[in-house]
Amino acid sequence: MDESLPEGTTAAPQKGTVTQRAIDQIKAMIGEGRLEPGARLPTERDLASQLGISRSSMREAIRALTVLGVLEARHGSGIYVTQLEAGDLLETFGVVADLSRGPGLVELLEVRRILESTATALAAARITPDQLAEVEKHLTAMNATDDPEEILSHDLAFHRAIGVAAGNDTMAAILEGLSSRTFRARVWRGYQEEGAFERTRREHAAIHRALVARDPETARAAAAAHVGEVEQWLRTQLQP
Amino acid sequence: MDESLPEGTTAAPQKGTVTQRAIDQIKAMIGEGRLEPGARLPTERDLASQLGISRSSMREAIRALTVLGVLEARHGSGIYVTQLEAGDLLETFGVVADLSRGPGLVELLEVRRILESTATALAAARITPDQLAEVEKHLTAMNATDDPEEILSHDLAFHRAIGVAAGNDTMAAILEGLSSRTFRARVWRGYQEEGAFERTRREHAAIHRALVARDPETARAAAAAHVGEVEQWLRTQLQP
DNA sequence: ACCACTGAGGTGGTCCGACCACTACGCATG
DNA sequence: CATGCGTAGTGGTCGGACCACCTCAGTGGT
Fold this sequence. Notes:
Arc Repressor Mutant, subunit A; transcription (chains A, B); transcription regulation (chains A, B); mainly alpha; DNA-binding (chains A, B); homodimer; Four Helix Bundle (Hemerythrin (Met), subunit A); DNA-binding; Tscrpt_reg_HTH_GntR (chains A, B); WH_DNA-bd_sf (chains A, B)
């Protein structure tokens, strides 16, 4: 595409659509620090006139930045810049997991295996007593019920707690997206029908033991095996 | 054929905004397979009347799904579903890298270190002669010039070629986002001013040697060290 | 002096209708 | 048969109108 990025910060020649230009300009304002996280933007009407476009086009631009987690519109109040933290910006990652299929699912699970194993290893080294208690809470709750829906909830919370304990919010947010509810539900529907409940419980117990022992390498192996089990099963499902 | 959503997890008769509902409905259509990748959607006007909303609101919904890489609007032709591949859906990942700052940058680089090292290890085991030639091409081109802009280009292409050789398109797409042009340019501006050119060249050479030797473990270590160097430098920059 | 209520103004949310810019495809033309 | 052109249909843009909601100053009571 076009290359030159001179000093002209707001230099926006006749690019693509008017709306796309507005998106880039607002994004640039934030990138250059002219709009701090949490700041309130001018009204839609003012923004539109400032950039010389109609309110309709400006609204499309705002909507685009809203779904990306960059802006937040509060009805009756105004438009605000989000905190631009990992959780805000990576929320869209869930869409990828929800709409991927076929080979893409396996690749996604492979990425999760890599990140989850590392995150679990980090957690083993850094986890605090409070965080460990949180992990244990979901572990026992998971083992105390037979309702698949509830198991899934605590399963997600179990791994989420570990992700938080790893101390890298960005990684935790990515893992959160890779483990979105619909994604897991879709994959597990068939997997757990093959009596994988018990195996899952054993694997979770192994991860927990490694965390208690503060043994990063064992934790890494246990987490990799845990995700790898599902990954391998899914791989066979795509080989009819 | 629409209206009431039968039993469901989020049984909410009247959700949020009309536009958000339209976004969810279109997303659901794709998720349920009612819209195949590459398929053409009805016109904006038809879609709007089908869902009982105005064309303006429908356009906002379409715009939202467009920036997410789910839909693609072609002026004068129609609206189409993308191929829903990794590259389409993960394009938004670059926005995260562009707008993150402070501690988030280090976390992002940590994620990249984990994924890049694994990808490089996989590449060492799987890379083909053609792919290896591609890697070498950018390596030599990178060493043959002093233009920072050109070096950056070949640097990106160098790692991109390795990511492709790893055989996981999803991981390659994520790494592509984590290494977006503006992201790298921002971080390297200061880094390379401290005479890190030579060190970067040595690290790239080490990665290349490991690929030629088809030694995954050495490749993993070399890649981790390479990214880790930048990561550590950036970490010190945030401790004033 | 304090607090609860109320009203008006401002904001985002939705809708409508018109026109423009571009593409696609069939028809007339050579 | 190949070429060119015109038309119908599509997304893109615009302006205005009205609605739903939040905010806060002003009011009235205690």
